[in-house]
Amino acid sequence: MTEKFPSQRFSIAPMLDWTDRHCRYFHRQLTRNTLLYTEMVTTGAIIHGKGDYLAFGEQEHPVALQLGGSDPAALAQCAALAEARGYDEINLNVGCPSDRVQNGRFGACLMADAQLVADCIKAMRDVVSIPVTVKTRIGIDELDSYAFLCEFIERVADKGGCDTFIIHARKAWLSGLSPKENREIPPLDYPRVYQLKRDFPQLTLAINGGVKTLDEAKQHLQHLDGVMMGREAYQNPGILAQVDSELFGEAQAAVDLIAVVRSMYPYIEKELSQGTYLGHITRHMLGLFQGIPGARQWRRHLSENAHKPGADVQVVEAALTLVADKIPAAV
Fold it and tell me: Which residues bind FMN (predicted)?
């Protein structure tokens, strides 16, 4: 990883049902430096669940685990397990507004209890040596003044020892809006996050919400330490091929998207041998050729065939032939 920039300089947001380990492995083929996040995992799932909710591949580094929870002891237990497994960062979700998350008393509703968030961060920091960070909103419901945001940040930083915050530049409505609507309806307020950095220059602050291009990311980086991109990175992953050169200053040969797809074949074959369905991997790759002639045929072929019994890399190779002769050699 490039040393001259912090890991938070560019990251891909944790997205439930999207940023699973297959997605992260694929994204890592496109960018070496981007910090990748897991989907949010609850403390209850890790402690009591039957599956391995901490599974990830060594090739995914740098990778952060996002935790959902509000019990300091349970969070500390999970953070210690995650550090032992090799994660590079632990992130506490203080931003998700869904009813299910609120009922578990975690996510955005925690903004109303800054001291509890501070206690949670301190409990984790006491048992791990890797960074413990917070992803939050600029406010919730009627608690949306700049003073409220500053008080929250100050308490969590001072009492919890948190020095890195990722700020989704929208408030969250805890009732009346769906999670999808909470990503779209409350207006973005980038200047408020910029002001936060001016008022807390000692903290590492990254911004999230509505970032669609690397040019926009560069604009934010004139004011802040980092940018987190969400849905655009997932739906148009080809954008990630430019990140290492554009945002991390690496001298980089142009990225061949056809080669990126084929670099997935050993991983796909290994996963298939372990019982993974092809579609569980290729669903994350559908948007790779966005804007390129043949992209629709690529998506359609994978969507129609990857779920079939016995589907293997030949399905992907056949889909590639529908776009390969139409794509520039590299981007």
Answer: 14-16, 66, 135, 168, 208-210, 230-231
